[in-house]
Amino acid sequence: MIIAGLDVGTSKVTTVIGELAPDGVLDIIGEGTAPSQGLRRGVVVNLERTTEAIRQSVHQAERVAGVKVERAVVGVGGSHLKSVTSHGLAAIRRGQSISEADVERAIEQAKAYPFDGELELLHALPLEFKVDGQEGIKDPVGMAGVRLEVDVHLVAAGRGPLANLRRAVEEAGLEIEALVAQTLASGLGTLGPEEEHMTVLLLDVGGGTTEVAVFRESRLAHSTVLPLGGDHVTQDIAQLLKIPFEEAERVKRKYGAALPELADPELVLEINQEGGSLGEVPAPELARIIRPRLREILHLARQSVDEAMGPLEIRVNRVVLTGGTALLRGFDLLARQQLGLPVRLGRPQGVSGLTDVVATPAHATAVGLVRFGAALPARAAEPRRGRERKGREEREKGGGLWARIKEIFNNLF
Q: How confident is the model at residue 271 (pLDDT cuts 50, 70, 90)?
């Protein structure tokens, strides 16, 4: 069974192709990355350029895998994403145990949250249940009680940005198997078994945005999008050193560090300034330009968690950094200093095959999309046409919702 994950980002488009073996092992068999110039802050602003970047990325992955991709699980990011935790309630008749239908009724009530009409619901993810006041229940099916309550994390996206993303993917020749929030996909791609019982803050620092997600016992409990990312670091370098954006990006990738003490004090960088002249910059000075923007991103992430869940240092056990910007030397050390928590780089886990190719934080989302696709029930039995529309209609009706959610998350760890 072939599954493709398509991560359409601000600075790059990445396609990862996986093959699910009969024994349940997920092999990565193809990868392709193409520069993206058609998005701004995770939103399509140039349809033609985005479509072409998708085509290039998919074609590269197909050549490596030796297979043709016809459909994909597509990541959704950008500041148009909105999330909230909603509460649902269902009454249970006396003498009857709680059924899956009761669970779905409670979830459906939580899904009735009054989002803006311009938003489309992507995910309704149960956090925990309460039966007759008893908290901390993960799966209430079969239990006795008269009152079932549930907290559900809802993730919605702007209808306009979603429509443009769908059109770009379809014009590139692909069918959309599912749309998945990048925050959720990054967690699915990188969180390991040892973090199943932790509360983890995941920061996916991309080109135009930073996706902030808190996973509590492997379930997405909080998510938001910050309008800052690696491109803003590059812009700071370009502005302060008076060099073109492309040169600033090259210098950042090759010599950049998040902390001045990690830079070689003897190293002087030659840079191509505007007008064609050469300039010189000490490596520690470059790090002093980079550090403030990264500290701002970390500060805003902490603020988001503090406001939604309480003090970060009390609620969170570990921080995981993903996204291309996470590869900046010393970013994990800076995060550890500023947030006061253990920090690690989020490299994809739980897959085999081309692990050396995708074993970077930049591939976390794409691998997570493949894992999401691999866990979708009855993929092979469904007709290819209309799969995304059918899935969306089922979600709106609530049919089979709890069963699908349990299957996806139970297979992840």
A: confident
Judge whether residue 410 has pLDDT over 60. no
Please provide the size of the chain in residues.
413
Beta carbons within 8 Å of 90's beta carbon, 6+ residues apart = 102, 103, 105, 106, 109, 148
- Give helix then strand counts, H and E, for the chain: 13, 19
Q: What class has domain 235-289?
A: alpha beta
Picking from 155, 208, 176, 182, the residue whose alpha carbon sits closest to that of residue 73 is 176
Q: Which residue has the higher pLDDT, 350 or 328?
A: 328
DSSP 288: H
* Sequence-distant (≥ 6) Cβ neighbours of residue 371 within 8 angstroms: 18, 26, 188, 189, 350, 351, 412
Residue where the block lists tokens 């590059």: 234
From 163, 164, 75, select the one nearest 120 (Cα to Cα): 163
Q: How many beta carbons lie within 10 A of that of residue 198, not counting itself?
A: 16
- In this prediction, residue 107 carries a pLDDT of 95
Q: Please answer whether residues 65 and 30 qualify as being in contact, where contact means their C-beta atoms are separated by less than 8 angstroms.
A: yes
Residue spans of the domains in the chain: they are 235-289
Cβ partners under 8 Å of residue 199, min gap 6? 214, 215, 216, 217, 221, 315, 316, 317, 318
Q: Which among 154, 189, 190, 168 has a CA at the least distance from the CA of 42?
A: 168
DSSP labels for 311-324? -HHHH-SEEEEESG
Q: What is the pLDDT averaged over residues 375-401?
A: 47
98-140 per-position pLDDT tens digit: 999 999 999 999 999 999 889 999 999 999 999 999 998 989 9
Express each pLDDT in 188-228 by its tens digit. Answer: 999 988 888 899 999 999 888 999 999 998 899 999 999 99
Calpha distance 303→296 (Å, rounded): 10
Of all residues in the chain, the percent with pLDDT exceeding 70 is 90
Report H helices in 222-282.
230-241, 245-255
Question: What are the angstrom distances between the C-alpha of 132 and each of 136, 140, 322, 370?
Answer: 12, 11, 40, 38
**Backbone phi and psi for residue 79, each to the nearest 5 degrees, phi listed first:** -70, -5
- How far is the C-alpha of 225 from the C-alpha of 209, rounded, in Å? 7
Give φ, ψ of 197 to 5 degrees. Answer: -110, 20
DSSP H helices in 66-181: 100-111, 159-171
The CA-atom distances, in angstroms, between 126 and each of 130, 177, 371, 377 are 11, 22, 19, 18
